[in-house]
Amino acid sequence: MAMVGRVRCPRCDERVRRDAKVCRFCGHERLPDLGAPERAIAAERRGAPAGPPAPPQAPATATLPAGAKLPWRGMRWYRSWWVRGPVLALVLVDGGLTALTPEEWVDEAIAVRVISGAAIFFIGGLMVFALVPWAFKRLIKRPSSYPRVLLSFPLMLLVWVGVHGMDLRRAELNPNAPSILQSTTETQRQRQLADDRAAFGSWLTTYSSSVDTRVEALAKLNRWARRDEPFSAQGQERLQEILALARKFRRQTLDLDENPYIADALPLMLRDATTLLAGVRLLVQMPDSPGQAEAKRVRADKLFERSQESGTKAVEMVDKVYIDFGGREAFP
Question: Where is the chain membrane-spanning (predicted)?
Fold first, then answer.
């Protein structure tokens, strides 16, 4: 069986079979009858009449008729995946990946972000799935036009421009809302970091005063324990001073504002202040019996150990946040 050649349709410029009467891409019916000479020669050999001559047809290089709307005519760069591929990557990176990040959603922009992100991923999904039939038809040398029309890069550009337009409109309506196409701009990040650092600095001032009270109470408690007669009248007076400092330390700990950066450290601070106060109260209520006094002192030492352990962990957490915010450079 002889191979049938192909010619280009004068309207859509697609390659069709030489003996085709209608273009299977655009439906154009006035294809050049380039197979008429071959049919006439074959009919002459068979002794059959060749039939009426074919009407004159427009050559394959004929210009488009007036009013024809074929944007891809003669624009090979337009149909090139080397052009549309980078555009798709630009659209996905600039719009879809950040617009659908749940951690970055806010109430003012949720609806617009969902719509824009879904539209961009829809266009990207169409292109990905269209690559399969496009590649298959490419392998069997049967070009298909629908990926070129449906997934043309002007369509992606329109979606991209639309998303940017919605972002500009959002900025006019609510300048404080985060961007649609990006989680936050660099200026917004810096402003947010400055606000968080200021809030932590205010909290750190109150926390430092409570730590000073704790250090003073522990220092006096150690000096009291090293004396020869800690439970004498003078020793009881010092215990009352230590008890007042422990109560002050607990009040200061309760007055600390909740801060999201040190949320895990606050329970440890409260446990530290509570156990320290309980241990000092146990020493103040020491009975006269030597045996009972020794037992209560052992219990008080255990409370002080628990207090020290909780306080150390809390200080480590606060120091980590302190360093993350810039340390001495941020809080001179």
Answer: 81-102, 114-136, 148-166
**Structure confidence by residue, pLDDT tens digits, 298-308:** 888 888 888 88
For residues 203 and 321, membership in a common domain is answered with: yes
Summarize pLDDT for 138-151 with one digit per residue, the tens: 655 555 555 555 55
Domain membership of residue 221 as a residue range: 186-329
Answer yes or no: is 178 within a domain: no
> What span, in angstroms and rounded, lies between the C-alpha atoms of 35 and 101?
60
CA distance 314 to 8: 79
Closest to 8 in 3D by CA, of 148, 152, 143, 150: 143
* 261/223 same-domain check: yes
Rounded Cα distance between 313 and 122, Å, is 50
Neighbouring C-alpha atoms within 13 Å toward the C-beta of 177 = 21
More confident residue, 245 or 290: 245
Structure letter (DSSP) for residue 60: T
Please check whether residues 202 and 325 belong to one and the same domain: yes
Long-range pairs for 133-142: beta carbons < 8 A, 24 or more residues apart: none
Beta bridge partners of 7: 16
Instruction: Name which of 122, 119, 124 is nearest 165 in CA terms.
Output: 119
**Sequence-distant (≥ 6) Cβ neighbours of residue 214 within 8 angstroms:** 249, 272, 273, 276, 311
CA distance 36 to 30: 14
